[in-house]
Amino acid sequence: MTLNKQALLIRYQDCPSTPWKNGGGSTKQLIISPATADLTEFNYRISIASISSNGPFSLFNGIDRQLVILEGDGIQLSIDSHEGAKQINDLGANEKIQGDTDTTEYKQLTPINSPFCFTGETSITSQLLGSDVIDFNVMTKRGVFKAHTQRLNFDGIFIEEHAAITNNNKKEHHKTEADTTIIQLLCCLDTMTWEHNGKVIKIMPYDMLITKPGEDIKLATTTPSRLLRVTITACKPSSK
């Protein structure tokens, strides 16, 4: 997908739904890069899935994953900690799951929890805690891209300001996050309106706005509302 400085709106209802191979749920893919990529080779991917039965997660070698529960009672994860699954809270703190080769770790995820981060090679089985679940998935190619997913709450007006980066305010030999940001996304979890080019556009739950640094986003609502902000950045080359 090629983006200019204009925000792009992806309508959740327009995204096709694909059933899982094991029949345990279905997935709507909101974005994948490159746009022609498949699930065996991509740079980053964002999707929303429904889980209707218990079962294993698909394995994605070389991919880092982030998972957020959106609806339902939640799930319990059984995690094979042989290689050590990685959990990162929304403040960026890292916590490594410790365990012997025969140890299984358990973690419950509900709609109030922070994003759960893990490697795509980790063997995980999920069990529904009650009703069917809808979850939000972010995947990035390890060592090439990384993502930060954050829950946001607002009441009234939400303004996302992006300061334009120019050659005049860049420091030589110093790359800021704005320099390495590939794409920023806002997934709206409630109904709200978006003021864009003099028009007011109605945003429905799970619609997603894609922006680049340099454009401000203004959203309005009459009730307390929620967003997910995802920032995808390029990894800095390792120094040798």
Q: Can you tell me about this structure?
A:
- With 240 residues, this protein is an all-beta fold.
- The protein folds into two domains: 13-141, Jelly Rolls; 145-234, Jelly Rolls, CATH 2.60.120.10.
- It has one helix spanning 177-180; strands at residues 8-10, 17-19, 25-33, 44-51, 55-56, 63-71, 75-80, 86-88, 94-96, 104-109, 116-119, 124-128, 133-141, 145-154, 157-160, 181-188, 192-196, 199-203, 208-211, 217-220, 225-234.
- The longest helix has 4 residues, at 177-180.
Briefly summarize what is shown:
By secondary structure, this protein is mainly β. The chain has two domains: 13-141, Jelly Rolls (Sandwich), CATH 2.60.120.10; 145-234, Jelly Rolls. Helix content is 2%, strand content 50%.
Question: Secondary-structure blueprint of this entry?
Answer:
Elements: E1 8-10, E2 17-19, E3 25-33, E4 44-51, E5 55-56, E6 63-71, E7 75-80, E8 86-88, E9 94-96, E10 104-109, E11 116-119, E12 124-128, E13 133-141, E14 145-154, E15 157-160, H1 177-180, E16 181-188, E17 192-196, E18 199-203, E19 208-211, E20 217-220, E21 225-234
Antiparallel strand pairs: 1-19, 2-3, 3-4, 4-13, 5-12, 6-11, 6-13, 7-10, 7-12, 8-9, 14-21, 15-20, 16-19, 16-21, 17-18, 17-20
